[in-house]
Amino acid sequence: MTVLDRDVTSPEGGAEESWEQWQRPGVNQFRHPHIMLPAAYQLLSTEVPEAVAELQALGATTHNMLAGAYDLPAIGGRLEGDERFDTLAARRPVIEAALGNTAAKTAGITVRRGVAVAGLLSDGGANRPRVTGVRTRDGESIAADLVIDAGGRNSPVATCSSTSALPPPLSLGTTPDSWLTAATSGRRTVRCPRSDRGRWNTTTASR
Ligand SMILES: Cc1cc2nc3c(=O)[nH]c(=O)nc-3n(C[C@H](O)[C@H](O)[C@H](O)COP(=O)(O)OP(=O)(O)OC[C@H]3O[C@@H](n4cnc5c(N)ncnc54)[C@H](O)[C@@H]3O)c2cc1C
Question: Would the pLDDT of 194 be above 60?
């Protein structure tokens, strides 16, 4: 597996160095604290326990998402099954450093930083073209049996498709009826429409 990232630098040193020095312009929310979604934590614990060990070694703290509410009458004490709300929290550079370190130590994974994807390669089939790899901004062609787009919400894949004779990708969850938008930098109205109950708006503000 080859992982390409347009950001150039790798994590160096420990948690403090990652927080202070690591530059990741490709991720806007890089200098934020993050709470890993419990499902992601369960998946990592089961499938990549060494990543959880690396996270804890760098100072990530584990906790239960419900623990702070056990004193509330409506919640009550801990119940059987609540372990599915276990997760961990850390500063985002720390989470990324731990995952990056784990990937770097895993046989069969090559992480190439400073490589930006500029287009998709396809076999040019007239009716159903098949993606066969990617083209980088520097003009390198990298063949692949499977291409996974992990480019985030501003992924260039939709543009890539239009320049490589591929049909546009399916867009999931972006219709007004199914999508929740939120922002923690600046201020934005969040609309969570529900066709059966009408439209309701929430305004969030934070820095
Ligand atoms: C302020 C804020 C706080 C958040 N807090 C939490 C939280 O506490 N817990 C939580 O679970 N989630 C949180 N999220 C959401 C979480 O950060 C995102 O869901 C997550 O980062 C999405 O991951 P991703 O891998 O899809 O995309 P990203 O994290 O955006 O990663 C995309 C990657 O693709 C690379 N890339 C982009 N284009 C190219 C290209 N052309 N070629 C090569 N590489 C490219 C980028 O450099 C980057 O490394 C938060 C989001 C925000 C904005």
Answer: no
